[in-house]
Amino acid sequence: MIILSLISFQVFAQEREVSGTVIDEEGLPLPGVNVIEKNTNNGTVTDFDGNFSLEIADTEDAILVFSSIGFVEQEVVVGDKTTFNISMAVDTESLDEVVVTAFGIERDQKSLSYGVQELESEELAEGNQTNMVSGLQGKVSGVNIANSGGAPGTSATILIRGGTSITGDNQPLFVVDGIPIDNTTDSSVEVASINRAADLNPEDIESISVLKGPAAAALYGIRAAEGAVIITTKKGKAGVSSITYSGTYSVDEVLGTPDVQQTFGEGQQNLDGGFGYTQPSQFNWGPEVAEGTPTYNQIRDFYQTSQTQNHNVSYSTGTEKSSIYLSIGDVSQEGVIKTTSYDKTSFRLNTSSQMGDNLTIGGSANYIVSKIGSAKQGNASGSSYTSLLSYPINQNIQDFYTEDMNQRMFFPGQEFDNPYWSLENSPNNNKVNRLIGQVNLNYSFLDDFNLSYKLGTDYYREFDKRVIGEGSLIPTLENGSINQYEKESRRTTSNLILSYNKEITDDFTIDALAGNMIEDWRFQTTYSSGIGFQAPGIYSIGNISQENQNISEVINRRRAVGVFGELKFGWQDALFLNFTGRNDWSSTLPEDDRSFFYPSIGSSAVLTELIDNLSSDNGLSYLQLKGTWAKVGKDAGIGRLQTLLSTNINPLASSAYTYNGVDVGNPQLVPEFTNSYEIGFDSRFFQNRLRLDMNFYYSKSENQILQDIRVPPSAGTFYATLNGGSIENKGVEALLTAKVFPRSNDFQWDMTYNLGVNQSNVINLPGQLDEVYLSDSWTFQNTAAGAAILDGSLFGLRGYRPTRNDEGELLIGPGGIPLLETVVFEDVNRLPDWTLGITNSLAYKNFNLSFLLDLVQGQDAYNATKSALSYYGLAEETLTRSADGTRVIEGVYADGTPNTTVITEQQYYQEYWSQNAENFIEDASFARLRYVTLSYGLPSNFLDRLNLTSAELSVTGRNLFTITDYSGVDPEVNTFGAGVSGAGSLGIDNLGTPNTRGFDLGLRFKF
To answer: Residue 652: its pLDDT value, please?
Structure first.
């Protein structure tokens, strides 16, 4: 007994207790971390608060090993310490990556047979874009994003693998926490309009998964034919509570303005009995400005330096059973044009509670209020840019009031408004109140089954008001006018999914799901307009006499119902076979053809796990091969089956409803389908520090639903909707990442290369059509428009070109001006041949430097702004005027005799040069330093004094330089933005506000 007691005492004397806390990089406790005494079976796990306590051998060489899935394993020598505070880093080199796929379902990346690329919140935040779509620029392979200018509240167009629709929407589906949301954009023909995804606060986003192509988004059905952008928002985390603040202050200015000549001033040329000038005039075709006369660069002086403030505060907390996340964000931006602005305030609540062992209930609500003040643009009546061009260089445009405060006319008969007067007297305002909310339930039962249900709504109310003030010089609008609309949109989505996950044997697993999705969309808009305000200064529709008012209402409804299923087999967690199928019923298709089915099949094989000795520490670490085939359908737009009826079509018509003869419905429409094929590989080398992920794809979209197609007058209508036409897309995507130094180094350098190569070609059109275009993309003087070209690009161009005879000579009309004809430009492609985004991140201790170089090559642009400058006599090309102000164009009349008709230089540039679209088609390839950010994390000893978990200061420069041969201000042009569907307005530069460059100062801290 005594001996046993001595032994027990001796053992007790050789052990001691150690304890501590384990946290992540953000300072939050990590529960469930394994804590093992090395080379023993002695260990424990951290509790909910990250705390641990363990009895270990009382030796100086004892080592503790900390490990947890998703974090870098860490070994700590105990020495004489008894208390430990351990911070674990995320394992960015782990092979078992998890990505979010359809319906928010997490999948191992190695099991996916299609292209998916994920961005974390930190990557999205780089570059400080308030529009989350713009934040994806250059960061995802195979994705093209084009901003529509630097005006506040402009849209960003996003295309994944080109486009599959000639007249329909080519943008991907946006999904937030498993519920689809609205990303539509109103027409930007008059004023810039924002895409609705920009309502989301980037600071609320945890991660974004971009599902590329039909295969990736097959389960989402008809709205995901163009791929999907899956957004996961931040949730509360278990552990201590935290409050985070982030704020930036930004200054911006336009990238530049066009070069304008400062030699020839006001005047209009004429040949009445000889050569002379008519003055005053809105054109710059007069004589040279006398020495000493002040001149003005009207366009350059119109823009100002803008300022933006962006503030965000969030609160996160959680327990073992529940979590909550709250945030408030506010953006306040003044535009580069006086009186223009963009303000957005957003509130978000995410919450989740576990009810018992198997049931979890959650919900979220995101309320956004946005306000935009705009100036008119493009070809619109009262466009700021057009008005700027209409003031000659020797007119002081900023002196726009007379002594009695009326608008000053600088020449008799002026019929356009001074742009500065318009900014003060003709406001254009837009306000949106939006609520995105959902409730979700998740119930697990019988060990292997899970039932989830989500009900979500996306509701917004938009009020848009555009005024021309009293005192306007526009004919018939002297007493002002108003155009406004009130829109109410509600999309309700119901998702029910039953899933089954079973490990049949040690090697074989099966995952299956079946679901139902119901989507109901109700859309109502009331339009009202009127001319002539009765009481001065009250810009309201109620201030216009009833007989001068027009009011109309449009009500649209759409319902889609889908059932879907997925079956996935896995063998040794290395070989996977996946099947999906979905059937949709859409209310926008004829009753007999509104049901359609489409499947997909894909496979993935991780060869480094299937083949022994294929991988090595200093060579190949991982190799996955993947391939898939998918088919996806698309329905028609709302109301395309019916023919419109109208009343009072002309003075002789009765008041009864009558066929309007303009747009004919088609009750025989059938769905269009896209078939896609994709193969690829994912390879990693040198202990996963180098990665190359490539995908090769081909898709064919057939039996297109073509909307508003112009048909011959013999058809009895102007427009029609019909089936026909095919688009072919093929391309390559490559993602190359490199971690130059091991994670143990103080200095880190990570590089990412995103390459995308794509061709979108039109291989078939119905009937005798050789092109399809949308009128919203018409440019200045209707010289050109974006168009889908048969046997050419989906993003092509149509426009005017001079007529030539068989010998190539210009054919001259009776007035001495070459004859012009409308043609399609078969070689024009407004979509880049390839894009390459190069991101670098360098870190040393508390400093971090990151930058993005964006290369866009092989795209064409149409410089309609330069065409307008030529028309008004402002382009530098117009300096080559003859001494006598006249010329004879070399060419022949219809009978073959040489042209001898004398015309003025003004006639040459206005009636020929500016109208010839060939003169303004340019290569718009460019290389742009998209952003550079330098940040500094405050040291821990300083943070301890302030009771902060982390704090960071940053400075960012955006669009610092651009290398391009494009003669316009900015080769990245898309004046009419995402509001133009189909062939769109990508690559069309038409009197819009130039993009901006700017600098940001940022502060972020957490406590």
So the answer is: 45
End-to-end CA distance of the chain: 57
**Distance between CA atoms of 899 and 725, rounded to whole angstroms?**
44
Q: List, in order, residues 6 or more apart from 42 with CB less than 8 Å away.
A: 36, 54, 55, 56
Q: What is the pLDDT of residues 919-974, one digit of tens each?
A: 999 999 999 999 999 999 998 888 888 888 889 999 999 999 999 999 999 999 99
| 6 CB-contact burial (10 Å; exposed 0-12 / middle 13-18 / buried 19+) | exposed
DSSP state of 865: H
Q: Tell me, rounded to whole angstroms, the distance of Cα 806 from its chain centroid.
A: 47
Q: Strands (DSSP E) along 572-619, which ranges? A: 575-586, 595-606
Tokens 């990505």 label which residue? 99
Most confident of 245-249, 844-848, 946-950: 245-249
Under 8 Å between Cβ of 989 and 252: no
Which residue do the tokens 């299937």 mark?
610
Hey, what amino acid is at 446?
L
- Given this model, what pLDDT does residue 767 score? 85
Place of tokens 């356009």: 416
DSSP assigned state of 631: E
Both tokens of 81, joined, read: 């310490």
Amino acid identity of residue 589, one-letter, is L
| pLDDT number for residue 776 | 84
The token duo for 58 is 């009382």
DSSP state of 644: P
* CA-based max dimension of the chain: 136
**DSSP H helix total and E strand total for the chain:** 10, 55
Give the pLDDT of residue 835: 97
**Residue length of the chain:** 1007
Q: Would you call 884 exposed, middle or buried from its count of C-beta atoms within 10 A (0-12, 13-18, 19+)?
A: exposed
484 touches 502 (CB < 8 A): no
Of 229, 179, 215, the C-alpha closest to 517 is: 179
pLDDT digits (tens, 9 = 90+) for 301-351: 999 999 999 999 999 998 878 999 999 999 999 999 999 999 999 999 999
Decide if pLDDT at 11 tops 70.
no
